[in-house]
Amino acid sequence: MIERRPFESLGGANHGWLNAKHHFSFANYYDPKRMSWGNLRVWNDDEIAAGTGFPPHPHADMEIITYVRDGAITHEDSLGNKGRTVAGDVQVMSAGTGIRHAEYNAEPDLTRIFQIWIEPTRRGDAPSWGTKPFPKGERSGQFVVLASGFEGDTLESGGDALPIRTDARIVAATLKAGDSADYPLGGARRAYLVPAKGEVEVNGVRLNARDGAAIAQEDVVTVKALSDAEVVLVDAA
User: Fold this and answer.
1) What DSSP state is assigned to residue 126?
2) Mean pLDDT over each residue of the chain, to the nearest integer
3) Can you tell which superkingdom this protein's organism belongs to (predicted)?
């Protein structure tokens, strides 16, 4: 089962400095049919104007993954962490028992991000933050794990992914027109997929850039690029 959610159908708001589109109910956008997908709670498509951003604000008990599509995002938090994450790279914040953070576009041009929130499996842990480069050349033609709660995927267990405290995995692929990549999902799990760029077919269902695809009961997810594409997928419990 694959449900295409066209970009034009998404909720959202344009605040001037922030133009946000919401794949799921968020802030003033409410749709009872789009509350979550498994343990995936939020997928926001944000465009942040140069020299602006989100001032310090709190979070708790949420895994927050930021995938930078264009530009860069600069992070500061109450743990003393500071970092700049550039296009194609990823940052992860495990809010845990509580953290305050700010996210700014300190660049001269527009920054575009996907911000993804996933409900944690573990609660009560101390908050943490991390960022990591994922060169697009290394994920050309195949899915690469960016962040994961699965044993064996993460830096601590011999993999390359950033750790998250939940039963989920975030993967990405860059595909040339005509290329395909498979992701072994398993029929008992759900996935949500968005092309950051380009047009693709997902098990035969066509998606344009920034459309969403809610996927269930599919053992394997096959993505074929109809044009040069960049794809992000969340494998959710």
Assistant:
1) P
2) 96
3) Bacteria
One-letter amino acid identity for 97? Answer: T
The secondary element (H helix, E strand) that includes residue 236 is strand 229-236
Kindly report the CA angle at 167 between 57 and 99, in degrees rounded to 5?
A: 15
Look at residue 31 and give its three-state secondary structure: coil
Secondary structure, 3-state, the chain: CEEEECHHHCEEEECCCEEEEECCCECCECCCCCCCECCEEEEEEEEECCCCEEEEEEECCCEEEEEEEECEEEEEECCCCEEEEECCCEEEEECCCCEEEEEECCCCCCEEEEEEEECCCCCCCCCEEEEECCCHHHHECCCEEEEECCCCCEHHHCCCEEECCCCEEEEEEEECCCCEEEEECCCCCEEEEEEEECCEEECCEEECCCCEEEEECCCEEEEEECCCEEEEEEEEC
Q: In this predicted model, what pLDDT tens digit does every residue of 186-230 receive, in sequence order?
A: 999 999 999 999 999 999 999 999 999 999 999 999 999 999 999
Longest Cα pair distance anywhere in the chain, in angstroms?
Answer: 46
Question: What value does the CA radius of gyration of the chain take, rounded to a whole number of Å?
Answer: 17
Q: Which residue has the higher pLDDT, 159 or 79?
A: 79
Nearest to 174 by CA among 223, 215, 131: 223
